[in-house]
Structure prediction request, 289 residues.
Amino acid sequence: MGAPTCTRWCGVPKRCPVCASSPRQCTRKARLSVLRSATPVPVANGKVNKARCLAPSRFFQPQAMQFAKVATHADIERVIADHARAARMAIEAGFDAVEVHLGHTYLASAFLNPKLNHRTDEYGGSLANRAKVALGITRAVREAVGDKIAIIAKLNMTDGVKGGISMEESIQTAQWLEASGDVDALEMTAGSSLLNPMYLFRGKAPIKEFAAVMPQPVKFAMGFVGKQFLKEYPYQDLYLLERAKQVRAELTLPMILLGEWSTSPASTKPWPMALSSWRWLGRCCASPT
Prediction:
């Protein structure tokens, strides 16, 4: 069985990320390759990567046992420029698309999050201000790549913590991204790598496994606060679908759905409904050759 032949890229009107020819008819035998563009601070461990983590406001970072550096205007401009440079490198490397990570409390998501963003300048306060970093990144990436590759934005619907990003704010940010014309699709996600890591996942939390790879004193602390840090949520198929449907109702932009889907018979019922009401990006119509 050969590689799949892409015949359609799920409704994106301007470009096909596989061959850059017709957006609906493509005969190149290839698999969609996507590069993620992200600034993982404030969830990164500065002691490991030898770079002090950036954040919208000052807070103590337990991974590195130090306070995060409050991002200056120069830092923000540099990060935005770095995303654009990474996107140009993605083209040179032959990627078909780039995913800009605006979720999980990575830097752009941290600016969106009112629980972490306490700034009083033009990057804090109102949602319009808190969204400037995210929108600035996607604008810079679009200017860098033009129509050569597709751009996906990964956006939180909720952080899973009190005082974090709300569904209303997420939908508004998604609408701004759609109106900008800078992204070809949205990938809706949830949770915070910093504040509630297990919200995106479901089932038993890997507390012992997590503690085993952590240095002291984090390893010791996990024995006492592990259950509070890695909260458990019961598994169910398509567990982000209901939230994502709220976003779908307000947008026409193609969307990607996260959230597990098992192959058990009980999970087959919602799938046809999901297929009929969503445009699935990256799920190319394929036939063996």
The radius of gyration is 20 Å. DSSP finds ten helices and nine strands in the chain.
